[in-house]
Structure of Glutamine--fructose-6-phosphate aminotransferase [isomerizing]:
Amino acid sequence: MCGIVGYIGNKDVKEILLSGLDTLEYRGYDSAGIYITDEKNQGHLFKEKGRIAALRDKVDESINAYSGIGHTRWATHGVPSVENAHPHQSTSGRFTIVHNGVIENFEEVKDAYLADVHFHSTTDTEVIVQLIAWFVESEELDTIDAFKKAIVTLKGSYALALVDNENPDTLYAAKNKSPLLLGTGEGFNVISSDAMAMVRETSQFIELMDGEVATLTKDSIKIEDLAGETIERDSYTAHIDANDLGKGTYPYYMIKEIDEQPAVMRKLVQQYQNEDGNLEINEDILAEVKESDRVYIVACGTSYNAGWVGKQLIERITGTPAEVHLASEFAYNTPLLTKKPFFIFLSQSGETADSRQVLVQVNKAGYPSLTLTNVPGSTLSREAKYTLLLHAGPEIAVASTKAYTAQIAVLAILAECVAKFNGVDSPLDVAHELGIIANAIETVIDDHEVFEHLSVTHLSTSKNAFYIGRGIDYYVVMEAALKLKEVSYVQAEGWASGELKHGTIALIEDNTPVISIITDEVSGPHTRGNAHEVISRGANSMIISMEGLDRQEDAYVLPKVHDLLTPLISVIPTQLIAYYTALHRGNDVDKPRNLAKSVTVE
Ligand code: AGP
């Protein structure tokens, strides 16, 4: 979490840093700050609690500055406050730093080196900048050596940008585990947590790797390892359209991204189709899956929920057994693995620390791995053996919507390609079905007013709610509940409907909202029975069913799509319900409290 930016060059830096931070705000929005150096080499620090908009109001417009660093924070150590906002400075004010990550041994470092230093914040970050200053002042190291020595001393995750006001024509950067890119241009260079934040300035980026230190001036970038060995690395072009980063005419990114799902389905078919119109995936991946005796899907949050649908698709289409694991559990409670596991990492951002932790273990053990991600060049993409892209376009709202459906669609494409490679008949024509689904999603989205009304009648005041379903619908209600929780703050459970009477039904009282999803012919009648059980106990029931399984009592009937792909359509009403519930409660839909989009700490 947290986002960092840096710029050194010829243009006035204030707006470059602030608009970069606006783009990075999805990584955290507890506080924000910038440090800029003006034409007379005078440094200026601006920090504010809360959003970038609040910081923007504080920045002195009259300053002309050509270099600076900035930060948007998701608090880990220390409450959200101006004191704890980055950038942090050494006591003398000579060094200024921004940091994304967590320093695990900050207390030990403080005791060992900094016992006499007065700290201004309760962050782990201030320890870094005070330590650099200590190495310069007490051991007479120059800045780069002090920076390197601090890095060797610190344990944890970090992406860092540092300014030394005695040498303001230079910015320093380093990373470990947390992502960091260097961007290059004519007469300027930049530092950024992701390419999106600086794509208005440049499309040329260089990856910085763990254990490397970069020195940037406006005309040069030098990368070296901790032993001082220079590292040459080519830049790559980030294919991001700056126009995709805006909300257009939409009030929130979340509703824009919900609306984009039909286009994403169609784009995925195009991207994975070969010249003959057949779906195609790198044969090396297919051969590895064929070789494996079990697929392990590892992910967090919404991606984990998509993984459950993926398990169903892989097992039903290819016949290979699949398991789904929470990355944060897998890393420290590793299950007994089969002889030939194949790992699939699902991650919209490609930066999730919990998932990366598992990938590091998987790589160490030499198992093959594939990342499905929306962000080319992201950490999980670089470190896995293979990558398949989601092609969903930037997903900015913290609540993931289009990445969920894109992950399921790519897993379906993968499963069909594996089946064909194995000489097995696929039970469905995925490209054809995704076309049908794109149209069906459009139909549901066109009915958005129905879901706005249902949100008002069922969820406008309730503190809790239940989504229930069985089989493939159970997987969807897990995601439906997560979406409702994170944006509306309604305490929601996604429950296997058959499990209700084993305990949870005790929570049902007058007007408790219970939303049933029924798309499965075999289990649907049972879920309907469970819906009636809760209605008898006073629940405010809403049944969303699929054409062919519908009854008069149902609140909404979904267009019929292929049995294996119903989550792609049944999830849409639940996204809209979460959106409208949050909207009517006056919440910040795109930036729900306490959250950040990219979870780069474990
Ligand atoms: C989704 O709405 C959430 N914000 C969150 O659960 C997210 O899916 C999770 O943190 C995983 O992120 P990733 O897909 O980028 O790895």
Notes: The two ends are 10 Å apart (CA to CA). The chain has a mean pLDDT of 95.
